[in-house]
Amino acid sequence: DCPGKEGTGGRKRNLTLLRSKLYMGQRRRTEPVVESTTGDHGNLRRSQSDRTEYSQKLQEKMAPQVVSSTPATLLQEDEEEEEEVSRRMMARRVKIIAELMQTEKDYISDLDLCIKEVIQPLRDKQIARFDVDGLFSNIELVHQLSAKLLSLLEEATTDVEPPMQIIGEVFLQIKGPLEDTYKIYCYHHDDAHTMLEYYEKDEELKQHLRDCVQSLK
């Protein structure tokens, strides 16, 4: 408090000590500190290089997750899923078309047998009491129309890539003849069934039918 050399020297020492404390305080604020609760060692300081290395390792671990969730990756996964669905649908469509054509082939084969082994032999016998055309109606026209349908289906699928096979157009093309032919067949179906029941009561006519069935077997 008293002026003089001693007072001036004391103020200088105090100023030097204050500068030293300020410098140490700035170092504490700039250095990273990690508190440790192990034992009674108090606080442990981690160097800046250790902290940088830790950050790099953390980023490496997180990197795969970040990449897998990017919009580009999600878009690619969606496109692959859509392609897989399209492939399954196309494979199913190809299978359905193949089954349709095989069913038509089997149907035509049955009609062939019926005409060759039943209708034609009964006509050749020229049985007076047996109305062959009344019993089988226009089944021969049905056979011709089915053969035409199969031919159109084969034309639409042979040497044609599955995505380019247009099947609906075939049925639209043959729609009119199908209606006209089956309209007649269905109209006479009940009468033909009644006629067959009557023929089966006649032993002679019934035997002719048995011969035809045996020929089919």
From TrEMBL:
<feature type="region of interest" description="Disordered">
    <location>
        <begin position="1"/>
        <end position="86"/>
    </location>
</feature>
<dbReference type="InterPro" id="IPR000219">
    <property type="entry name" value="DH_dom"/>
</dbReference>
<dbReference type="GO" id="GO:0005085">
    <property type="term" value="F:guanyl-nucleotide exchange factor activity"/>
</dbReference>
<dbReference type="Pfam" id="PF00621">
    <property type="entry name" value="RhoGEF"/>
</dbReference>
<dbReference type="InterPro" id="IPR035899">
    <property type="entry name" value="DBL_dom_sf"/>
</dbReference>
<dbReference type="GO" id="GO:0005737">
    <property type="term" value="C:cytoplasm"/>
</dbReference>
<feature type="domain" description="DH">
    <location>
        <begin position="92"/>
        <end position="217"/>
    </location>
</feature>
<protein>
    <submittedName>
        <fullName>ARH38 factor</fullName>
    </submittedName>
</protein>
<dbReference type="InterPro" id="IPR051492">
    <property type="entry name" value="Dynamin-Rho_GEF"/>
</dbReference>
<feature type="compositionally biased region" description="Basic and acidic residues">
    <location>
        <begin position="47"/>
        <end position="60"/>
    </location>
</feature>
